[in-house]
Write a structure and sequence with these properties.
This protein has six helices and no strands. The chain is mainly α. It starts with a helix and ends in an 11-residue tail after the last helix. This is Solute carrier family 25 member 45.
Length: 203
Amino acid sequence: MPVEEFMAGWISGALGLVLGHPFDTVKVRLQTQTSYRGIMDCTVKIYRHESLLGFFKGMSFPIASIPVVNSVLFGVYSNTLLALTATSHQERRAQPPSYTHVFIAGCTGGVLQSYCLAPFDLIKVRLQNQTESRVQPGSPRPRYQGPVHCAATIFREEGPRGLFRGAWALMLRDTPTLGIYFVTYEGLCRQYTPDGQTPRWGA
């Protein structure tokens, strides 16, 4: 992708992550812990015991991973779509790619993106699950001192495979989702752009 598009994707992805991360933290706590009675109870307890920063635990690595993840996703998608249309019998320049090809290319990008994303997502969840108090003096120190320490601890105690714990589940979630995402994007562009052409990543 051109530098401008790459930076725009990174900045927009980072802003979306910052805005959504507090909700993701609440979701992770509710999914993995039983000490909360609901969304409001979880939100109040996080703020009371961990301050506003408690909602943003584990956010640094996902922000850092956005360029890598997006590069893999859109790069694989574009090249897979090019390969599929190059081997088809349709006139590539005269006709847009079929939705089947778009879906396959999106799923292919989703598979590889999932494995790139898995370690970052695991570290994020581990840090989000730490419930140490930031506002009460004398509280026990958290197990992980930050994302780098978390990654090193997982690698030392669980080996390289430990960093990819849950990668299969992540792949099963993201692969069809991204296929549907690209099909939807392609369809909306064809419907609402003046010439019916879809902007191409990397074009």
